[in-house]
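Hey,
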Amino acid sequence: MPRRSARLVVLLASTALAGPAAAQQADVRLKEITVEAAPPKARPAPGAGAAAPAQPPPPGPPTAAAAPVPTGPGGDSAATSGGGGGPSGVTGYVARVSPTATKTNTPLIETPQSVSVVTRAQLNDRNVQDVNQALSYTPGVSANVFGFDPRFDAFYIRGFLETYDGIFRDGLRQAGVNLAVPRVEPYGTEALTILRGPASGLYGLGSPGGIVDITSKRPVFTRFGEAWFQAGNYDRVQGNFDVGGPVEGTDGTLAYRLTGVVRQSNTYLPNGADDRVMIAPAFTWRPSADTSFTLLTEYLNSRAPGTATFYNAPGFVVTRLYQGDGNFNRFDVEQYRIGYAFEHRFTPDLIFRQNFRYQNVDAKLAYTEITDVTGFSAQRFAGLIHDRLGTVGLDNQLEAHLTTGPVAHTLLMGVDYYHYDFRRESGFNSAVPDLDIAGVTDFKRFNYRTFVPRPALNRASEQSQDQLGLYLQEQAKVDRFVLTLTGRHDFVSQSTRSGTPAALGAATTRNDSALTGRLGLNYLLTPNFVPYASYATTFTPQVGVDASGRSFKPATGDQIEAGVKFAVPNTNVTGSFAGFDIVQSSILRTDPTNSANQVATGSVESKGFEAELTANFGPGTNLTVAYTHLDFRFLRSTDAQGRVIDGNALSGIPGDTFSAFGTYLFGPGHPLSGLQVGGGIRYASTSFADDRNTVRNPTVTLFDALVAYDFAALDPRFKGLRAQINGYNIFDRDYTNCQAGFCYRGAPATVIGSLIFRW
């Protein structure tokens, strides 16, 4: 591990906040709950050349809630108490407890890493349509690197890519490989928890930047119903529904929930659909207060354009010439999952949990790409890719509570297992007729359909991976100190074959094992003001072989983090500040002696600080504010052309970001009673357009808005009826962002109107 150029120093404030401790887990009255509870020469894939984060994001064509939301009994979303159960103690945008950082129900203020929670209320208020939107007001996250792309959830945390190993669902990793990346429908989620920094000590292989754990909506034992009818620009029509409650005749031991989405929509991309169908049945069986079993299932089918990019002219110029041909421009994903969360309390101090999931993803991509423009002709090629991925995840946990003298212990022991099988079949065709662009004067409206020969699927590859992890965690609380010590040993094996669909070659295998862990210390200066510091390590197996045919050793890294968390007494106002320094080594870099191959020798460093404030001032009145300063550098690396870029900044990732989103609900007695207004600002500073750091991206500031009205304020007979309008990039800022030398367009102004009925 290379020496850091300087050790991280964080000055922790010593001013104590007066007043009694705020309740860590506020009860929400039911009346306040709603149940909102190697092809031709072409551009590199998005992110190619950003060797630092580990792997490129999902490619285009590859090269070689106004009211508090119901959630669970008492207003908490956790159907189980520990890992995978989701955040609890939720009031508006504020969450007090989350199991993501420790797999136990530890208050966020006592966790030794930076954690944020995007609650259902926030998802509803912003009418979030994808994971990138959900994370756009969260510190440390770069969610707009690749512009508008409805095909993938591709984002960075602290400068590291999260798409393949950083997304979790109900406490289990949701692996993605190449194009087979499971999609997430935000309406089917209860919350998103962002744990920043290495999480390998509990979760195994993953990104050094952190993880996002997505909590699925779960049954509650209170009857409810909700329906959304939506319409927006680009011919968007969508319907959502969410119903559930106890099953009659089961004496309150069985509850169900059924959530669904149907959408038909175009996009500003010519011939670019954004259609989706999702259905998610769930059941909870609770035969006693000590035992629960929740079945979680989902089927999702989506259609998006095959490409989301525009032709790039020399000099980092993004033209208006869309690369997709209407006759060959589709990305279809069909996926399903089935799993469960089981918990049994042997005693109040001894709890067993088991989380399981099987998921299957079938992704088919048909696309064209413009490689050059000569005169009035655009030269093109076409690609056809079919990726299939099946994954299994199982996590067993045993949690124990005991006391030895003045020390209160929370012990967690676990064994988890992950497996995936992946197969790709692909074909490319460079004999695509040139595109005639003579006479075109308005490329924004240039919508073309031409004959595109369908490529033959003549290439194939298969890959499987198994991971077995054993972990142990101690949380020791003595006086004002909370010590968290986590250790884990992983065993990973992977096998890869390639060739043609009828004849795959011999398998290339690799076996790795690694020890990872975390050491964290929190000091309760007051119950509401807690400085902390932690050290954590990470590792990530890497796919492929070097010029000698040897598989790559895993990337490894570590982080130092220190900060402070606070909660203003007698309010629902919380905040945090964190400074961090991450180094990752043995990442893939272009082989200096053979540019057609890679070697696992590079290293990068990510350091900076983040600040966040989240508040609920009353029903429907919330605020979230986030600021991030990030300095991400290549310590030892080369770009895609083999040129040394040591000391350069990672392209496409802004050094400073600021975001804020707030809502205000006019209360009873006010002339505007029932009206809720809100808005947000998203600012990103400049970044470099390429990893050689020759050109800069401009700063970008975007504005969002919300206007909603509760018709119950007009007449009690309209209780449950709400109208809502959301606007994104409301001033229609025309912006682009370049990363690794390729540039992407952001989404123009978008408006979605919703009519919501809850009962």
